[in-house]
Amino acid sequence: MVNLLVLFFPLLAFVVLFIKGYTLTYRQIITFALGCSGLQTIIAYYVMFYAHSAVTYNLGLWFGFHTFEVLYQVTFDPVTNVMLVLISTVSFLVQLYSTAYMESDDNFPLFMAYLSLFAFFMLVLVTAGNLVLMFVGWEGVGIVSYLLINFWHTRTAANKAAIKAVIVNKVGDIFLMGAIAFAFLLFSTTDYSVMFATVSELSYNKYLIFDFIYPFDLMCLFLLGGATAKSAQLGLHTWLPDAMEGPSPVSALIHAATMVTAGIFLLIRCSPLLEFSALTLSCCVILGASTAFFAATSGLFQNDIKKVIAYSTCSQLGYMCMACGFSAYNFAMFHLFNHGFFKALLFLSAGSVIHAMSDEQDMRRMGGLVNLLPLTYVSTLIGSLSLMGFPFLTGFYSKDAILEAAYASHSGVSFFAFILGSVSAFITAFYSMRLLYLTYYTKPNAYRSVILHVHEAPFAMGASMVCLCFGSIFVGWLCFDLFVGLGTPYWGNSILVLNKHSHVDFENITPLIKLFPVILSLLGGATAFVIYSYYYRYLLKHTLSPRAMQIYDFFSYKWYFDHIYNYFLVRPVVFIGHEWTFNILDRGAFELFGPLGIVRSLNRVMDFNRQSGFLYHYLLIMVLGGTLLLGIVFVTKFHLNYLFDLRIFLVCGYLFLFTDFRKNTVSKSFI
């Protein structure tokens, strides 16, 4: 039961800091927050390395009706254990980094509380034993991400980015709710163990929906739709770059270890289901490869240092989705684990640069920082080389393994993924070197006052980056045989791959194919360095031509996805919402036939009656009222006893005494 403490400590940290945080001193806050996060991390490592057997704890019934029951099920298996280590490690280092980065913020206790709550909901998501409980963590990280992105709520850009993140992710939530509904329809349960044990029998008893698609395939596609929004795949990716409006520690936490990995985790967790849906697997490959290429080309033309890294996150998530498509779930999990370390390092290094440059984020206004920020430069260099897939760094082992598995799958969509993935590797290396050159190597382009105040990161920030540097160098080498080695028994039954989808051939592909992605990555980095060092004026001259500017605008505006959504989706919805539902329904029909319309009609009648002063007008109102009352009695069988309640007459008489009929208002003495 010691495993359950991994959920207890982040929840305890949130409750204490949220309720009592503002009454504690700065030292007490960081001691308590880091203490809880550190204990959580120790337990996560214990679970991964010493608690080898998979175990599920049933903590009781949550709710149920008829034969449908949802239990508090907490599952610890190899897939969960890997996620526990990644989430706990990165969360601890981000909190340590935040103690210096957010020290001067007035709402520092609240920020630390939100970080702990974020970690708690992510742990609920990965340890849940059924889809419904997983959905609680899924929604939880979405809510807290809104709070963290919008933490500096006085900034309009942060407000818009947080709202956009919530709205886009709600699309994915609808897909996931549809998947849960289909799971109950097909399996009569949402329990992972029951669904995974019976799916092989279910897959042979199919019937078509609308003569078009099988319900099981539709369920798997809905799972993919939920993962598409949460993991920012092509089409529902637009929230991810805008989420950079939050503080840099938030960017590291969202992009490295928590929210964006939830969708990929869902696909890996549901591998026993996806293996029986060839349509979903093909969609995963196409979607992942397209996302990797799209994000790489968009990141190439960004100038905000955090948005460049954000698009690299989107691109790497495309690799993971692509790997799930050709059943290389262990490769996807390996890259997810490695990516958490070097991407957190890149974001924390970017935060150090922004902190030193007086909140400047445009790389074109930086430069010359290689000697002023040596630790930050080394951290950015290691993170960028690992992202590029430089040989023998962490990213090299997992990204190249995915591309090799794509080539070894011997199918049309996998070869398509191999080509796009390799081209994306070249572009990734190019913009990674561009980031390094514009930020550190080129001549200083900032104001003199900014350069004079440049300072290296404080101890807490530097310590976090140093720890992540070691992870970005050694984790891939240390875990390669354990995660993706041929015949490794580590994953056990937590990942299912059918024999027809196995990847034994990837060990036997030719050396040239193995080296092809590496060569492209090195070539991309070298090309960027040469162009920006010696041919920058030549590049600038040719990019000013009209055709080049059109190409530049297309990629810098992210393939115009935001413009298309605004023109074809947002504007029509806003128009319908204002002109139809608001003006015609809310302020039209509902007010006319609702309580407000009735009150206004009665007021007009009473005003007419009171102003006329003729007896026959009073008699007419009395006759009409009596007729209406008798009609209600005979039509609806309404009992008159309900009308003759003494308490009603007392209230009406009290109001009558304190009512000013001349102004038709209640006197102040009554109020």
Keywords:
mainly alpha, disordered C terminus, 671 residues, 27 helices
Descriptive notes:
This protein has 671 residues and is mostly helical. The strands form two sheets. A two-stranded antiparallel ribbon has the order 1-2. Strands 3-4 form a two-stranded antiparallel sheet. Helix 1 packs antiparallel against helix 2 (26-49), helix 5 runs antiparallel to helix 6 (156-187) and helix 6 packs antiparallel against helix 8. The longest helix has 33 residues, at 561-593. Strand 3 (659-660) and strand 4 form a beta hairpin. The chain has 27 helices and four strands. The protein has helices spanning 5-20, 26-49, 78-101, 108-127, 131-149, 156-187, 192-202, 215-230, 239-242, 248-256, 259-269, 271-274, 278-299, 305-325, 329-356, 374-388, 394-408, 412-441, 448-452, 459-484, 511-534, 536-543, 546-556, 561-593, 595-612, 615-636, 646-657; strands at residues 55-65, 68-76, 659-660, 665-666. Helices cover 72% and strands 4% of the residues. The protein has one domain (2-556).
